[in-house]
Amino acid sequence: MSAPLRFGVLGAARIAVVALAEPATTTGDRMVAVAARDRGRAEAFAAEHGVERVHDTYDDVLADPEVEVVYVPLANGLHGRWTRAAIEAGKHVLVEKPFASNADEAREVAAVARAAGVVVVEAFHHVHHPVTRRLVSLLPELGELQRIETTFRMPAPSDDDPRWSFDLAGGALMDLGCYALHLQRWLAGAEPVVRKASGTERSPGVDASMAADLEFGSGVTGRVFCDMAADSWTITARVIGSRGEATALNVVLPHQDDRVVVTVDGEERTEHLGTRSTYVYQLEALRAHLREGAAFPLDLDDAVAQAELVDAVYGAAGFPPRPRTEPVTAS
After folding, report:
1. Cβ atoms within 10 Å, residue 106
2. What's the pLDDT at 219?
3. Could you say which of 5, 9, 167, 209 is the most buried, measured as most Cβ atoms within 10 Å of its Cβ?
4. Which residues pair with 34 in a beta bridge?
5. Mean of pLDDT values over 202-214
6. Do strands 69-72 and 92-95 pair parallel, antiparallel, or not at all (unpaired)?
7. Is 139 exposed, middle or buried, given 0-12, 13-18 or 19+ CB atoms closer than 10 A?
8. What 3 state SS string does the chain have?
9. Burial class (CB in 10 A: 0-12, 13-18, 19+), 1
10. Would you state the pLDDT for residue 234?
11. CA geometry: angle 189, 195, 199, nearest 5 deg
C-alpha cells in the first residue's frame, strides 16, 4: 500500500471532520498540522481527531515541511486566497467547493497552480462514488439523453453563518447550487448555456434560493434548483432519456441513501450502490493520483468552467458575482 498522505488543515470547520478527519481513519492518511483563528479551537480539533501538532497561524501550516497537501475548508470567500498561498508554498491542495469566489479569481488561481506544477483539487467528492458513476453508466440504457434535473434543498443555517455573507462569497448557489450545476455538467459531458435564472434574495446580493434553466449543445436541457432555507433536505439528480429515466435519491451524501431508481421501457427497479462515504472514495482517489500517478477525474479546467457557470447563473438572475476577499496577513 502507498504511503499515507500528510495533510495540513486550515481552520477547524465542521466540514473538516466529515470530509477529512473521519475518512482518514479509514484510509490511514495523516493530519500532521492544523491552525485556526482561535488556537483553542485548533487544539480541541487536534485532540479529538488525532492531528499531530497545532500551529499558531495558517502560514505556519503552509511552512511546515512535513505537510504535503493543504486542506482548505474555510469560508467560501477565503478559498481562492489560501489556495493560492498554499500553491506558492509548494503544496498540493484539496479545497472545498467553490474553488474561488468568482471566475476571474478561479482563472488566476488555476494559472498559478499550473505554473507551480502542483495538484489542486476542488472537492466535488460525489464524482468518485458508485452512485454518480452509475448515473453515467446508465445513460446508454436510458436512450437519447433529453433532460437533467438537479434539486438541492436544506434547512437554513443560522443568521450569523458565513454562508449568508456576501463579502465571504455566500449564497445558496455557492453552497448548494454548485453541486447541482456540477452534476449537470458531469452527466451531460458538456458545458451548458444559461437560458434563464431567477433567485430569491435574503439580503443584498445574497440568494436564499436559485433556479436556472440550462441548454447543452446537444439539445439536452437542464433544470437546477437550490434552496438554502427549506423545511427539509433534498439532494436528488434525475436523468431523463428517450427510453426511461434514473433518479439518485441522495447523490451527494449516498451514505445516507444509496438508492438509484431506474425506469426503462416502463419497467422500474431500484439499485443500491453502497453506503461507503464519498469522502473515503475522494481520499483514496487523491492518494492514488499523488502516489501512483492514477488518473483523477477533476482538473483545473473543470474548476474554472464551474466557476464561469456559477457567474453566468448569477448574471442571468440579476445577482452580482461574489467578490474576492482581499489578502490578509493575520490568520
Report:
1. 26
2. 87
3. 9
4. 9, 54
5. 98
6. parallel
7. middle
8. CCCCCEEEEECCCHHHHHHHHHHHHHHCCEEEEEECCCHHHHHHHHHHHCCCCECCCHHHHHHCCCCCEEEECCCHHHHHHHHHHHHHCCCEEEECCCCCCCHHHHHHHHHHHHHHCCCEEECCHHHHCHHHHHHHHHHHHHCCEEEEEEEEECCCCCCCCHHHCCCCCCCHHHHHHHHHHHHHHHHHCCCCEEEEEEEEEEECCEEEEEEEEEECCCCCEEEEEEECCCCCCEEEEEEEECCEEEEECECCCCCCCCEEEEEECCEEEEEECCCCCHHHHHHHHHHHHHHHCCCCCCCHHHHHHHHHHHHHHHHHCCCCCCCCCCCCCCC
9. exposed
10. 98
11. 105
Q: 16-52: per-residue pLDDT in tens?
A: 999 999 999 999 999 999 999 999 999 999 999 999 9
Cβ 82 vs Cβ 59: under 8 Å:
no
Report the alpha-carbon distance of residue 316 to residue 323 in Å, rounded: 17
Look-up of cell digits 501550516: 61
pLDDT above 90 coverage of the chain, percent: 97
Report yes or no on whether pTM surpasses 0.85.
yes
Average pLDDT, rounded, for the chain: 96
Mean pLDDT of 194-214: 98
The string of pLDDT tens digits covering residues 160-196 is 999 999 999 999 999 999 999 999 999 999 999 999 9
Is the Cβ–Cβ distance between 197 and 212 less than 8 Å?
yes
Q: Which of 169, 200, 181 is nearest to 83 (CA)?
A: 169
Q: Are 188 and 220 in contact (CB under 8 A)?
A: yes
pLDDT score, position 1: 75
Output the nine-digit C-alpha cell for 170. Answer: 455566500
Cell numbers placing 145: 439523453
